[in-house]
Amino acid sequence: MAETITMPKLGFDMQEGTLVRWVKNEGEDIKKGDVLAEIETDKATVEVESSASGIVRKLLVDQGAIVPIGSAIAIVGTKDEKIELPAGDKGAGENAAPTSVKPETKPTIAPPLQAAPKTVLTAGPIPTTPITNLNSGDVKASPLARRMARESNVDLTRIQGSGPGGRVVRKDIETALSTGQSPVAGGPYNAPVVTHDDETAALTKLRQAIARRMTESKTTVPHFYVSHEYKMDAVLALRKEINEFLPENEKISVNDFIVKAVALALREFPNLNASFAGDKVVRHGAVNVGVAVAVQNGLLTVVSKDADQKPLHQISMNLKRMAAGARDGKVKPDDIEGSTFSISNLGMYDVENFIAILNPPEAAILAVGSARNVPVVDEGGEIKAGSRMKATISVDHRVSDGAEAARFMQALAKYLEEPLRLLV
Predict the structure, then answer these.
(1) pTM metric for this prediction
(2) Superfamily for 222-423?
(3) Which of the following is catalytic: 228, 284, 313, 397?
(4) Which end of the chain, N or C, is surrounded by fewer C-beta atoms within 10 Å?
């Protein structure tokens, strides 16, 4: 029986998505789980998988179309069965005319931009090392196209995009490279132009979503904060010992230990593994820990599902895969949805401590700083070197109170300061 594929809802506040590209065309075979299309949301470019096996009988929307969530986008069925199009769609059944797909025009290379003369400040010899165009961030381009341009050292400002609204897409980069006309960023180095002119940069969809969500969170959710300092000597020693047996691409990070420790502590404090829902609190049965990943122009949260049930190594490998996809601008819906508690870790930036804004509708988020070598006083009163890490939990005061948050932070210490508990 034919099955209709719909625009998925990726986030509780998502209303629509842009269908960027069809991966499968009408008449092609497809298996359940195969990528059918790529859609762009406020967060990222997401691969939509088919929920059925068969033949792609009908593509119901054009590339570049903005589609509300829940709307039909394609029909998958058997070769000879009769299909019925959703109400309001062009045509009907077997005799319907094929849905047109907007062709992507071949990219053209724009002529070099002529800048007005400005005062240039130089010092010392002028290097000849090529650099990426400093204004490429202003160009409308998909995350994948930006990555390809960066890896191929292509100047995005010199490519005419064929995507919706002149957006540079993957095909534009591929065509420019294959025709040998790719404008390479660089050439003789030009020293930075010194100017006092103001610059206005339009917000990306991701930045707009972050602004909307964080404003809502900070102005409507009553936050409170509890901080704790953790002894990290045992974690660092165990991590070093474990990593001696692992290849470079599988080594465990400090953050992996934190994710596992948080997940186990949440099992003891289900009220913090929860969401506020008006007149009730939903305590989630699964412990799905979201981890904030820095991406171009913002943050994206990838989710370690059932982190309390998975071994440390599996958590680590899953997070590496999802974080790489997030940074490349290509993720799966399951990678970024369903978190019940979030972690924001800035330890790699040598940050001592900070506080994070809640990710609605979650009840809590943990902000993690760096593990630092500092002078500490041991039980005998002697001063010696020790590794310490500060973390602060932000909590929705409608859901929990300070005493419960403090006990959670103590429970977290139990796992981080006796990390063998994380391996059993």
Answers:
(1) 0.67
(2) Chloramphenicol acetyltransferase-like domain (3.30.559.10)
(3) 397
(4) C
